[in-house]
């Protein structure tokens, strides 16, 4: 019945709600048919056009269909996603493309694609264009629009195009789904990338929310610029056509004393805007092997572009500081690494946040590259009081503690305040009480000042 419907160019109309897996299986059935029909059409030199049709979405709902509706995907865009998805979970669907040209004993170049390490067929842009248009060059050029940088599939980070070698034709770029898209279509929970030497970036997370951040008005208002960019960047660059005169992406520098909330702010900005924030571990990038640093960083940047991550570089002045005088080969390689990072950051079309304790450590030439430079000062008395009041558990009894006096007397960071709250709370718990004692708070402050090398 399925084959009969397809051969008569009818859209499949399921009369019952299909499960996510059931719907995907039905889509793969059609893709198998389309591949077979297109190959037969190609070798038999048939002239009648092949009409590409996929399932009608009116009769069912599931995660896969919700994704299609969310992005208002066309039939062509759906087919591109389907081809990429089949390579991930149903590689046998693409096996017919392994056919060889017996005259030359090589794969048919018109099919595109490459053989993966596990011997499966990995589709390329050429593969999809063949399915769309066969031998019709004019039609192939028409459908090529779906793979341009301004296309919906690229702009929304739905697909990824990866060349085998530098400078390779777009036609031979490997077609894959971004990890986020793959997990959404399969209704799976997205897991973070594995942190290690070869992937020196780690997902940042927090149980706090944006409303929990406490800053002075100047810092708070300055941070709104990052919000506005994340919400309206596409309108500025695309609708207002400003991409002709300005580069995409946004670079911000957070600077100020340790413990003032730079990392937490980056984390909660991503949480607020529903974007993952990955902290790049600069200390792990120093490699004795020439080129390894760039190679490992490139993995992070490429993945970040695919998944629309915010990248966060802490202690950034260690690599982005004032240029090193070239007195040795190590200095030369350090400056080469810095140049690579600067170039890659310039090219990165998403948001990058760098953090440092001192702005003065940065070369002036680097500072001009930031769209925002935001100072994170130590909190003032009123802000310290709010941090003390919000920091303790609601179960804590604070009647014996003059928080206003403590906030006035002790000029310390938000991170230090939380360390003191942890200490004083643990002292109360160890005494089997909810009562927080002021002496424990004072002791905690002295402990923190000793840790920082300051007199208590």
In short:
The chain is of the alpha/beta class and 456 residues long.
Gross morphology is elongated
Mean pLDDT: 84
Q: Assembly state here? A: single chain
Total count of domains = 3
**Largest sheet composition:** 6 strands, mixed
Based on secondary structure, the structural category is alpha/beta
Helix content: 40-55%
Which H/E pattern describes the elements?
HHHHEEEEHHHEEHEHEHEHEHHEHEHHHH
Strand content: 5-15%
Question: What is the strand arrangement across the widest sheet?
Answer: 7-9-10-11-8-12
Which spans have pLDDT < 50 for at least 5 consecutive residues? 1-15, 324-334
Radius of gyration: 28 Å
Write out key terms for the chains shown:
six-stranded mixed sheet; 9% strand; two-stranded antiparallel sheet; elongated; 456 residues; alpha/beta; Rossmann fold; 12 strands; 18 helices
Summarize the structure in words.
- It is built from 18 helices and 12 strands.
- With 456 residues, it is of the alpha/beta class.
- Strands 7-9-10-11-8-12 form a 6-stranded mixed sheet, with helices on both faces. Strands 1-2 form a two-stranded antiparallel sheet. Strands 3-4 form a two-stranded antiparallel ribbon.
- It has helices at residues 2-7, 20-43, 63-70, 75-89, 125-133, 137-143, 152-155, 179-185, 217-239, 262-272, 292-307, 317-320, 329-347, 364-367, 381-391, 403-409, 414-430, 438-451; strands spanning 100-101, 106-107, 114-115, 121-122, 159-162, 174-177, 201-203, 250-255, 277-280, 310-313, 351-356, 372-375.
- The protein is elongated and about 90 Å long.
- α11 packs parallel to α13 (329-347) and α15 (381-391) packs across α16.
């Amino acid at each position: 019945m399925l084959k009969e419907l397809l051969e008569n160019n009818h859209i499949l109309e399921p009369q019952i709600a299909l499960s996510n897996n059931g719907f995907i299986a039905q889509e793969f059935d059609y893709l198998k048919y389309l591949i077979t029909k297109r190959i037969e059409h190609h070798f038999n030199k048939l002239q009648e056009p092949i009409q590409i049709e996929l399932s009608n979405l009116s009769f069912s709902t599931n995660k896969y269909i919700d994704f299609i509706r969310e992005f208002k995907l066309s039939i062509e865009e759906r087919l591109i996603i389907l081809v990429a998805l089949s390579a991930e979970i149903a590689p046998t669907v693409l096996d017919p493309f392994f056919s060889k040209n017996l005259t030359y004993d090589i794969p048919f170049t018109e099919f595109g694609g490459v053989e993966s390490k596990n011997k499966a067929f990995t589709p390329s842009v050429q593969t999809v264009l063949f399915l769309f248009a066969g031998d019709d060059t004019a039609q192939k050029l028409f459908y090529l629009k779906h793979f341009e940088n301004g296309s919906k599939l690229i702009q929304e980070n739905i697909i990824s195009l990866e060349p085998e070698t530098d400078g390779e034709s777009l036609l031979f770029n490997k077609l894959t789904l971004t990890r986020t898209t793959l997990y959404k279509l399969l209704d799976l929970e997205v897991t973070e990338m594995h942190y290690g030497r070869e992937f020196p970036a780690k997902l940042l997370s927090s149980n706090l929310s944006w409303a929990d951040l406490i800053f002075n008005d100047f810092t708070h208002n300055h941070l709104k610029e990052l919000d506005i960019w994340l919400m309206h960047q596409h309108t500025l660059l695309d609708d207002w056509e400003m991409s002709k005169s300005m580069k995409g992406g946004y670079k911000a520098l957070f600077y100020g004393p340790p413990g003032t909330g730079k990392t937490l702010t980056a984390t909660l900005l991503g949480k607020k805007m529903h974007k993952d924030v990955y902290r790049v571990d600069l200390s792990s990038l120093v490699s004795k092997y020439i080129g390894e640093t760039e190679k490992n960083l490139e993995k992070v940047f490429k993945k970040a572009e695919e998944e629309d991550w915010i990248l966060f570089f802490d202690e950034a002045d260690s690599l982005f500081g004032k240029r090193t005088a070239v007195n040795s080969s190590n200095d030369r390689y350090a400056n080469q690494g810095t140049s690579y990072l600067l170039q890659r950051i310039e090219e990165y079309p998403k948001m990058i946040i760098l953090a440092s304790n001192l702005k003065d450590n940065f070369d002036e030439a680097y500072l001009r590259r930031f769209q925002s430079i935001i100072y994170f000062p130590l909190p003032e008395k009123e802000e310290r009081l709010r941090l003390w009041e919000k920091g303790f558990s609601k179960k804590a009894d604070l009647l014996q503690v003059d928080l206003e006096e403590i906030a006035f007397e002790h000029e310390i960071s938000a991170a230090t305040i939380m360390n003191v709250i942890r200490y004083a709370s643990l002292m109360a718990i160890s005494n089997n009480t909810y009562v927080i004692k002021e002496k424990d708070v004072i002791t905690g402050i002295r402990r923190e000042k000793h840790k920082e090398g300051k007199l208590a």
